[in-house]
Specification:
about 0% strand; mainly alpha
Length: about 70
């Protein structure tokens, strides 16, 4: 089994909760800002070779464009 690195788990959890809470309060500006930060974190991790299914799946879940999410 592929263990989730604790730092990746924590960051994904923080972004997912933040984005979801922003959506629930109709704070589109905050949700968008957090989604951009999450994308930057995702790009940073994948560019450094730290790819984990949790990170990839969560990024897809919070991507508005279906084609981008599938990629």
């Amino acid at each position: 089994m592929n263990e989730i690195p604790p730092d990746i788990y924590t960051r994904v959890q923080e972004y997912a909760l933040g984005i979801t809470n922003a959506w629930l309060t109709d704070d589109e500006v905050l949700a968008s800002s957090l989604a951009e930060s999450f994308r930057a974190y995702y790009d940073e991790q994948t560019n450094s070779g730290r790819i984990h299914p949790l990170l990839t799946e969560a990024m897809a879940d919070f991507t508005d464009d279906p084609n981008e999410a599938a990629r």
